[in-house]
Design a protein that fits this description.
Layout lengths: L8 E6 L4 E8 L3 E9 L1 H5 L6 H23 L8 E7 L3 H18 L3 E5 H7 L24 E6 L4 E6 L6 E5 L5 H11 L6 H10 L22 H17 L13 H29 L4 E5 L6 H13 L4 E2 L3 H4 L3 H13 L20
Parallel strand pairs: 1-4, 4-5, 6-9, 9-10
Antiparallel strand pairs: 1-2, 2-3, 6-7, 7-8
């Protein structure tokens, strides 16, 4: 690379779900630009992501997002060493928009194309330099992960624990056997009459809880590192229905809302159940694998209670826990650029036949 930069500069494209994002990332660590166009408002009325609507929105926003990224970074195509793009997992239509756009850019500009696993991107968000990130200007200190490590990725579509002994090497320790934690947050948020997405709404409601008497069940699944949240959703429905009956609300009128105090207490109990299981299993995995650090990523990692609880439990055991700033936990192009830099250095190149893999795994046991 020119100009004395610290590693290759990648233009990275992310469109796996409902965020259209393009970033310019140097050396897998420094963010020059990270532009995200969110579709949350578009899908709020449906209470979840509508795949066809998401794909069309990507088509609408991907060129303006690219233009804004160039403007923010103040760089030229001659500075770019490769084009990285998410090719799975995710929504097929959404993935295809980003893949085909990245292919066109790489072909026209004569740059290598690098396919990146979306889940790997969430892990590598931990390597992005927070002090230099345009997405985080609050002065947070940055500490790089140390191998071997345990990574917990928690999002709307995925929840898993993986061990990393070195870059790009993964061993799956456990994963959700049914619903992801983020999906459970969305579902329970709807049961409580809160907005979409459910995670931030439940976190805000729970912060106002003055009574904390309602305890939701935990699915420990023995000594396994797997997760299960389907039963928790079912229990949440029963608990919410009972609370509605206690307040004399009609069962057939979803517009009749529980009191603010009850919503806060229920939100607190549900959030505690999810956080307790995630943190306990992660800490146990770190101890049993002799990990030297812990990485937390994914959209649910933006949850303040989960972040603080995991960091606190890790530090109590002398383990650093690296959590990206919230803007880098949700889907974004910078994390794809971070992972893409390590893939490029490893010699990975994708051809113009790169296709979407909606169910692409990160690792196997």
């Amino acid at each position: 690379m020119s100009g004395g930069r610290n590693g290759p500069l990648l233009l990275a494209v992310e469109s796996s779900c409902d965020e259209t994002s393009i970033a310019l990332v140097e050396g897998g660590r420094r963010i020059h630009a990270n532009v995200v166009a969110s579709q949350v408002a578009m899908h709020a009325a449906a209470g979840g992501i509508v795949p066809e609507v998401a794909a069309r929105a990507h088509l609408r926003w991907i060129v303006p997002v690219l233009e804004e990224a160039w403007s923010e970074a103040a760089l030229e195509w001659s500075d770019v060493d490769g084009v990285a793009v998410t090719y799975g997992p995710g929504l097929a239509g959404s993935l295809l928009v980003g893949i085909n756009f990245a292919k066109a850019l790489a072909y026209v500009r004569g740059k290598p194309l690098i396919g990146v696993n979306h889940l790997e991107g969430h892990v590598y968000a931990a390597w992005l330099s927070a002090s230099e990130s345009a997405a985080d200007r609050d002065g947070s200190a940055h500490e790089e992960p140390v191998f071997p490590l345990v990574a917990l990725v928690v999002s709307g579509g995925h929840t898993f624990l993986a061990e990393m002994r070195d870059h790009l090497t993964y061993r799956l320790l456990g994963q959700t056997v049914d619903d992801a934690a983020g999906e459970a947050f969305d579902k329970v948020g709807r049961l409580l009459g809160l907005g979409y997405p459910g995670g931030p709404e439940i976190m805000r409601a729970a912060a106002g809880a003055t009574r904390r008497d309602i305890v939701f069940p935990r699915a420990w699944m023995g000594t396994s590192y797997d997760f299960s949240f389907s039963g928790l959703k079912t229990a949440a429905r029963r608990i919410v229905d009972a609370a509605r009956a206690d307040e004399g609300l009609p069962a057939d009128d979803p517009k009749a809302r529980l009191s603010r105090e009850t919503i806060a207490e229920l939100a607190y109990g549900f959030q505690e159940s999810v956080v307790d299981v995630l943190v306990t299993k992660t800490i146990r995995a770190a101890e049993e694998t002799s990990a030297r650090s812990i990485v937390l990523g994914g959209g649910v990692a933006a949850n303040r209670v989960l972040r603080e609880r995991l960091v606190g439990e890790a530090q109590a055991r002398g383990l650093p826990c690296i959590v990206p700033p919230p803007a880098l936990c949700t889907d974004n192009g910078a994390m794809i650029g971070a992972a893409g830099a390590w893939r490029l250095a490893a010699g990975d190149r994708a051809g113009l036949d790169l296709d979407a893999r909606p169910s692409l795994p990160l690792a196997t046991r």
